[in-house]
Amino acid sequence: ESDSASEISFQFNRHKKTPSIGSHSSDMASVSSVSGSVLSVYSGDFGSVDAQGTVEFALDYDEKNREFQVHVSQCKDLAVVDEKKGRSDPYVKTYLLPDKARMGKRKTSVKKRTVNPIYNEVLRYKIEKMVLLIQKLNLSVWHNDPLGRNSFLGEIEIDLASWDWSNRKLNWYPLKPRSLSAVSGVDHRGVMNLSIKYVPPRSLGKWPKNPPSGEVHIWVKDVKDLLQLRPSGVDSFVKCYVLPDTSKKSYQKTRVIKRDTNPVFNHTIVYDGFHTEDLKDACVELTVWDHEKLTNHFLGGIRLGLGTGLSYGISVDWMDSTQEEVAFWQEMMLAANEWIEGLLPLRSL
């Protein structure tokens, strides 16, 4: 049994000239409420040079302005990217991990034709000290290419929980090759445990005539290993849309579970108005959010559909389901009236 259940009527616009009375039409070209993808820490890396050299920087936290400051001084003996011209055009980039999307990246200026660039720039993050202490700083050096084919030159990763904050001096650190943990695990956002079911029109009880459509049932059970944005945990909830409809009629959400990185929601949502052919063009989008007073922070999500890139013949960026998500949706389509259980990894959308 679910802790809560919500049922809404949902009808797709299949470009009928005269919609039926009371039907809800949705814009086929509408996009997801969570648009844009978050690039990898190593996005745009086309180089194959070995990491070498050192970087000089200092860390500080301004208590008055609640600001984390990375003073990037200079680099020495960086790798040469263009060997014919003996040239590198380096810049320094920083992220706060694990949630690189929340705080974003910071970059220095590009210094051209040098393997010993001098920056003397401060990269700033507005962030509470308690939140900062559960982050890691990823500082990397890159060669800037005019065509965007940037090359990775080395990095250093610092656990800010163990950092000596009395040390405000500039220090030299050796640049290292990209870490396996950063490549494979930096975007781990947790796993959602859920079940879905499609109920075709003919199985919805004793009707004088067959009901006009079927239902999709979504049972959000729990989520494991959410990103912890505060020392006290995370206050999470789940949003649900059936795309292409992003209207209030499509929108549903669970209650907020406080201070828990492994929240149990046990929440069931029922969408009616589904014709069997709609299952090929619709997409159930489930996103997990951290609730705060001023704004909610995106933690990760899944999209259940066929992942064809098309919806009702129109190209859309949200029809991008992974192989696991597509297989889950296909299994539901083939097993009418049966709950299909699954564990799906949350991802950037």
UniProtKB/TrEMBL annotation:
Pfam family, one: C2
InterPro entries to which the protein is assigned, alphabetical: C2_dom (IPR000008), C2_domain_sf (IPR035892), SYTL1-5_C2B (IPR043567)
Compartments in which it is found: Cell membrane
Recorded superkingdom: Eukaryota
GO cellular component: exocytic vesicle; plasma membrane
Keywords carried by this UniProt record: Cell membrane, Exocytosis, Membrane, Repeat
Molecular function terms from GO: neurexin family protein binding
Main location as per UniProt: membrane
GO biological process: exocytosis
Cell membrane listed as a keyword: yes
UniProt entry tagged with the keyword Magnesium: no
Domain C2: 51-173, 188-319
Listed name of the protein: Synaptotagmin-like protein 2
Species this chain originates from: Toxostoma redivivum (California thrasher)
